[in-house]
Amino acid sequence: RVPPPPPSVALISGSMLLADGYLMGQSPRGWWLGLGLLLSAGNICLLLVLRPVVAGAGAEAHTTRRGCTMLLWFLYIFVLEMKVYFIYRSCRAEGHCPGPPARQAFTLVLALSVPGLFALLGSPEAPEILSTFQWREELRSHLLWVVVDLLDILDVQAGLWEPPQRALPFWAEGVTFFYCYALLLLLPCAALGELSLQGPQPLPHRMVLYPLLSLLTVNLATSLIRATHLLLFRDTSVSSIFLGKNLLALALKLCMFLQYRKQWLSGPPSPQIPTDPGLISSTQAVRPT
């Protein structure tokens, strides 16, 4: 039996408890007991369901397989975003509106927990990956794009509850929230699925699914969402920094696709010798004289 990874368990439990605390703080005092019992029962059921999934994800950390890891991510985001939706609706309700520091603190909790959990789940410990310097750096770059995209999606979602006054109509807020909800559920699963298809050597044509989905659903779509909010609804909370990030990502990913196409047309990659300085020094140490 493989023990569950403590950082992942602590991150999941901590973010759920903080979300419960925000829900309790925004509810009327007479509802605290009933709401607390309901949230506690839900958390217990979630932990019972996640226990075998987390154990399977811990076993997959030493391989490139990510089946249980994708299921763990899906369940975590599904439950967390349901709580986020009720917190967001409470922020918009009359008489239960917390101050700007509380809203920004809640955004900070999401910005730390969601990308942090993906970084823990997506980082493999497989020997065939860690022993190849080029493959390891390729994987780190791939995971970094996912983390930045998660922050981008959370920034769009946070624009719904951080402003003190509503800048968008109700239907536009609903479309934006559930679009971000779907991206948080599915995009990291696509990235983890790509990792499951990899072997000892990085294959560029097997690493284009997530960059292509990210290009269409994050870099293009969120830029259009921000431009629509800014020009049509006069929303001044739009992040110009992430808008510039998406424009820069468009140029970088187009160059990456051209490079991948050139490598794919040139034929399959030849077997590579590990270029890790530690491995090179160890092989030179045992070289016969």
UniProtKB/TrEMBL annotation:
Region (Disordered): 269-289
TM helices/strands, residue ranges: 31-50, 70-88, 104-122, 176-197, 209-232, 238-258
Sorted UniProt keywords: Membrane, Transmembrane, Transmembrane helix
Composition-biased stretches (Polar residues): 280-289
Pfam families, alphabetized: CECR6_TMEM121
Residues in the signal sequence: none
UniProt keyword annotation of Hydrolase present: no
Family: Belongs to the TMEM121 family.
The name this protein goes by in its record: Transmembrane protein 121
Gene source species: Vombatus ursinus
Gene from which this protein is expressed: LOC114025045
